[in-house]
Amino acid sequence: DGGITQSPKYLFRKEGQNVTLSCEQNLNHDAMYWYRQDPGQGLRLIYYSQIVNDFQKGDIAEGYSVSREKKESFPLTVTSAQKNPTAFYLCASSVIGQAKGYGYTFGSGTRLTVV
Amino acid sequence: QKEVEQDPGPLSVPEGAIVSLNCTYSNSAFQYFMWYRQYSRKGPELLMYTYSSGNKEDGRFTAQVDKSSKYISLFIRDSQPSDSATYLCAMNDYKLSFGAGTTVTVRA
């Protein structure tokens, strides 16, 4: 079955530590996205990529980094510069010029907690 | 001011009631309007989409878009406990913008 796989499901980070969230898709989608979800704030865009080896900052990119070395993969690193990283992180993908009604396909999310 | 405004609720209704959800937006460039359903600890899934103004019906769900008022709605008829979830509106120009999500509980 085609879909998006995010791992791990739960992640704990110590203060000052970098952590990387994995996102893999087998939908042959060109575009991939990372969102952060906090209670009462909806989904906020962190980074997105429409093609391999290229990506753009979203609305809240500070303290995060990404790479897009393969079409199928779009890992997100939460760096120590991100002061409030505890949140639910969602990866999504879409066809280019997408939202012609198709919307995004989301993964199941990673819940990151700072301990 | 946020591009998309959605009352986060929560909203609690008895089984069989009509659930009414809505969003307002400020960007007149939005053309595609969607509703996502998100169960607890899961990723959102596309429920319905509408292009431009008008109504769209799918089973117990009806989506309405009024571009002149910059207002979209989702109605759930004969609500079931399995409809208990967070519902997010989304709309786009070159990327999707999401509302905050409304948490709905349908009581058996």
Supply the key terms:
heterodimer, A: mainly beta, 4-stranded antiparallel beta sheet, 11 strands, 50% strand, B: 108 residues, mainly beta, 5-stranded antiparallel beta sheet, 0% helix, globular
Overview of the structural elements:
The complex is a heterodimer of chains A (115) and B (108). Chain A has no helices and eleven strands. Chain A has strands at 4-7, 10-13, 19-25, 31-38, 42-51, 54-57, 64-66, 76-78, 87-94, 105-106, 110-114. In chain A, the strands form two sheets. In chain A, strands 2, 4, 5, 6, 9, 10 and 11 form a seven-stranded mixed β-sheet that branches. In chain A, strands 1-3-8-7 form a four-stranded antiparallel β-sheet, with no helix packed on it. The radius of gyration of chain A is 13 Å and the shape is globular. Chain A starts with a strand and ends with a strand. Chain B is globular, with a radius of gyration of 13 Å. The model of chain B has no long low-confidence stretch (mean pLDDT 92). Helices cover 0% and strands 57% of the residues of chain B. Chain B has strands at residues 4-6, 11-14, 19-25, 32-38, 45-51, 54-58, 61-66, 71-76, 85-92, 96-98, 102-107. With 108 residues, chain B is mainly β.
Number of helices of chain B: 0
Provide the structure class of chain A: mainly beta
Overall, the morphology of chain B is: globular
Main sheet characteristics of chain A: 7 strands, mixed
Helix content of chain A: under 10%
Secondary-structure element order of chain A, N to C: EEEEEEEEEEE
Biggest interface pair, counts: A-B, 24 and 23 residues
Ordered list of secondary-structure elements with their pairings:
The complex is a heterodimer of chains A (115) and B (108).
Chain A lengths: L3 E4 L2 E4 L5 E7 L5 E8 L3 E10 L2 E4 L6 E3 L9 E3 L8 E8 L10 E2 L3 E5 L1
Parallel strand pairs in A: 2-11
Antiparallel strand pairs in A: 1-3, 3-8, 4-5, 4-9, 5-6, 7-8, 9-10, 9-11
Chain B lengths: L3 E3 L4 E4 L4 E7 L6 E7 L6 E7 L2 E5 L2 E6 L4 E6 L8 E8 L3 E3 L3 E6 L1
Parallel strand pairs in B: 2-11
Antiparallel strand pairs in B: 1-3, 3-8, 4-5, 4-9, 6-7, 7-8, 9-10, 9-11
